[in-house]
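User: Sequence recovery, please. Input:
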């Protein structure tokens, strides 16, 4: 399994820490996992990791953070927790875009599920200039592989790459078009 370079923590390490929390145990309480088929059990584990990561990263970011490493750690936990929802939303958005009469309301709903992942990517990039595209792609793929889903890992890597390319284009446009031109009332 590929390991991310030292600029990011190994997702396996983060997952292990999350699985050892009371929050994770709480997320799985009341579910008789042993009675579920493997695919449903995996789904429960992934949702529990996602919710646990969300709660813990939110708490971390609400506390005074004194180092860029602590901030990056919180962002990695948040990113790890949003990968599953990001991939599921992107898959559904891709399916909707293939329809002749796309459901606009559902598309907006799904885009709202993609945005937190993309914002976290931007947070990681802006908080740690040493993190590369390869670091992020490796982290995302490793995280999904560690959760036991090879197909999701490949999709997560592809969709993350697409998001990063989109961000590069957005930054390029911002550099080319002066901010003052965008704020004028007259058309370009």
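Assistant: Recovered sequence (188 residues):
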């Amino acid at each position: 399994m590929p390991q991310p370079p030292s600029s990011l923590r190994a997702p396996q390490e983060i997952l292990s820490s999350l699985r050892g929390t009371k929050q994770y145990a709480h997320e799985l309480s009341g579910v008789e996992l042993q009675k579920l088929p493997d695919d449903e059990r995996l789904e429960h584990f992934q949702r529990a990791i996602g919710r646990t990561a969300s709660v813990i990263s939110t708490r971390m970011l609400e506390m005074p953070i004194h180092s860029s490493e602590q901030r990056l750690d919180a962002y990695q936990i948040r990113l790890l927790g949003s990968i599953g929802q990001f991939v599921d939303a992107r898959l559904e958005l891709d399916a909707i875009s293939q329809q002749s009469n796309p459901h606009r309301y559902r598309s907006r709903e799904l885009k709202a599920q993609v945005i937190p992942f993309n914002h976290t990517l931007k947070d990681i990039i802006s908080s740690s200039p040493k993190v590369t595209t390869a670091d992020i792609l490796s982290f995302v793929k490793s995280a999904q592989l560690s959760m036991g889903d090879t197909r999701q890992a490949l999709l997560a890597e592809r969709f993350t790459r697409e998001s990063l390319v989109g961000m590069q284009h957005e930054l390029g446009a911002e550099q080319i078009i002066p901010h003052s031109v965008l704020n004028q009332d007259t058309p370009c």
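Residues 32 and 41 are 9 Å apart (CA to CA).
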